[in-house]
Each structure stands twice: as structure tokens, then as C-alpha cells.
Amino acid sequence: MKHLQKFKTIIGISVAVLSFAVAPALAQDQEEQQQQQPALPGTPGGQAPDIKDDFSDETLEKFVDINQKLAPHQQEGEVKMIKAIEDKGLKTERFGEIMTAQQLNDSTNAGASADEMQKVEAAAQDIRDIQMELQQRMTKVIVDEGMEIQEFQDIILAYQYSPKVQKKINTLLEQSQGAPADSGQTTPAQPAPREE
């Protein structure tokens, strides 16, 4: 179970980092698709994501293998992001509170002082730089391993919304770790909050 939770964290980071890579290119396509799709509760904007879930076992095995190769890069990125926050004189929890308040359009910014806001903005810029670097390294790993970025992202989306794909990936992951297969009662990784 420890490996499964780590994998879910990796999926979450992959979503956050790789969303920077394709956001501009997919923005128009997504807007057009959203106009044609029915609403689905619990998805951003109330729109159903376009989910492909008919991946071959070989493709899903490659996806799991790639995610395991991405783990060291993601762990290094996490350490750098935490350091960027702490170097600005903030605690990660406080940084998170202020960022969440901003994303929710809370005009009080969680009661942040002007000094805190300057530190948050400086740390956020450092984090964006770290994420850009991490995105480039992750993209290189994915492509070097023979998978298209779009396909990788399609699998991430399917893992989040398709119980069928989630179960297959969890089983593959546990088999690769030598652990018994999970009952399928897992919580899907959630996409990173999007700035509106």
C-alpha cells in the first residue's frame, strides 16, 4: 500500500507538471469539447473530461515503468520546491494556506500580511521555474521511453476517472512491487488545482 500511495502522489505531480506542457496547445480543443459534452459532477467547470480507457496491457505496463523512472526527478523537484518556500522565510503549510485562498479568490488571502504576500509571490515564481525544469526532464524521460506525451496524459486522465484503468494500473504496480493486488478500493489521484 505504501508503494501505491507513492504512485498516486507521483500521478498528482505528473498532472501538475505536465499540464504546463500542453495547456496552451489543448486550450482551444478543450473549449470546443466542453461545449459538446454533458456536465459531470466533480470535474473542473462541471464538464466531463474526454476519457480514453482502451489502452493495451503493454501500454499500461510501459506507463507504470515510466512513472517509476520519473519518481527520482519528482522527489528532487519536491525537495527543491519546499526549499524555495522555506528560503523565503515561510512554512510550507502557511504557503499552502495563502495559495489556496488566492485560488478561491479569497480577498483576505488567508489573513496574509503584505510581507507574507511578497514572500509568497517570490516563492511561487521560484516554484514555477522549478516546475518548468521538472516538466522538461519528465517530458524527456517519457519520450525517451517511447511514449507520446499525449498518450501519457490520456492515461493519467483515465487513471483519475476510469475505475477500469485505475484497477489495471494498481494491479500492474503491485505486481511490479511483488505485493498482492489491491481490492480496487482506492481513491484516484486528484488533478492539481487549476488557476482560474
Describe the structure in your own words.
The protein has six helices and no strands. By secondary structure, it is mainly alpha-helical. Residues 16-44 and 180-196 have low confidence and may be disordered.
As a whole number of angstroms, the C-alpha radius of gyration is 18 Å
Total of helices = 6
| Global structural class | mainly alpha
As a percent range, the share of strand residues is under 5%
Main sheet summary:
none
Average pLDDT confidence is: 74
- Give the strand tally: 0
State the helicity in percent bands: 55-70%
- N to C succession of SSEs: HHHHHH
State the end-to-end CA separation: 34 Å
Low-confidence segments: 16-44, 180-196
| Anisotropy-based shape | elongated
Quick structural gist:
This protein has six helices and no strands. With 196 residues, the chain is mostly helical.
Topology:
Elements: H1 2-36, H2 57-87, H3 92-103, H4 114-144, H5 149-161, H6 163-177
Helix pairs in contact: 1-2, 1-4, 1-5, 2-4, 2-6, 5-6
Structural key phrases:
196 residues, mainly alpha, disordered C terminus
